[in-house]
Every structure is written in structure tokens, then in C-alpha cells.
Amino acid sequence: MVINFEQVHNYYERLVLEDVVRGAGTRPDFTPDMLADVACVALNRLPARYVRHDVDMMFYLTEHERHAIEQAMEEALTFAFDFVRERVASRRGLAS
Fold first, then answer.
1. Spatial contact of 80 and 45, defined as CB atoms under 8 Å apart
2. Is the separation of the CB atoms in 45 and 79 below 8 Å?
3. Contact 14, 50 (CB under 8 A)
4. Which residues, in sequence order, are bridge partners of residue 51?
5. Which pLDDT score is estimated for 59?
6. Residue 42, domain member (yes or no)
7. pLDDT the model gives residue 86
8. Contact 54/14 with Cβ under 8 angstroms?
9. Which of these, 34, 51, 32, 54, lies nearest to 42 by C-alpha position?
10. 20 belongs to a structural domain
11. What domain count does the chain have?
């Protein structure tokens, strides 16, 4: 039997990566490495929600659950951008 797991993914990955790219436009001081760190920090603050098809998950969510997901993503991304900025600033301060 051949099993194809290529469609299985964390629902939040695409959403977070898209939001990090959008957020990069307003944060020119963030390097590509910093943005990758932001994505990792944000994803680690969100629950793992593995799906095969994003649309299937959205179909079964209530309006309350959709709002909770949006809120959790916003909080995770805000935290991640601040966290990475502070870490880089503290490292630069130590290097001076």
C-alpha cells in the first residue's frame, strides 16, 4: 500500500508565513534571518492543527472559533516580532 502524506500540513504555517511577509513591509530593519525567526517563534506559540485541506477546516469552524484563531495569530505574531527585535538588540548591545 502506498500512502501519500504530502498534503498533511500545519494549518497555521501558510497563514503565519504570509503574515510575516506582510509585516516585513513595515519593518525594514528586519533581515530575512530575523523574519524566519519571527515565523518560528510565532508558530511555536500556536497550537499544532494538522490538516490535509485548509478549506475543510474552515468549513467546520464556528464564527467564534475563526475569531479565536485570528486573535491567537495576531497575539503570536506581535509577540514574535517584539521578541526577535529585543533579542537582536540585546545581542548587538553585548557585541558593542
1. yes
2. yes
3. no
4. 9
5. 82
6. yes
7. 96
8. yes
9. 34
10. yes
11. 1
Instruction: Give the Cα separation of 70 and 57 in Å (integer).
Output: 14
Residue 32 region by backbone torsions, left for phi larger than 0, else alpha for psi between -120 and 50, else beta: alpha
Mean pLDDT by 10 residues, the chain (96 residues): 89 96 95 97 96 85 92 97 95 70
Joined grid coordinates for residue 94: 553585548
Written as nine digits, the cell of 88 is: 537582536
CB 40 within 8 A of CB 84: no
Q: Which domain holds residue 73?
A: 12-91
**DSSP string over 21-56:** HHHHTT-TT--HHHHHHHHHHHHHHS---EES-HHH
Q: Using CA atoms in the order 51, 55, 60, 65, what is the torsion angle rounded to 10 degrees?
A: 80
The amino acid present at 80, given as its one-letter code, is A
Residue at 80 is within a domain: yes
Asked if the structure places residue 96 within a domain, the reply is no
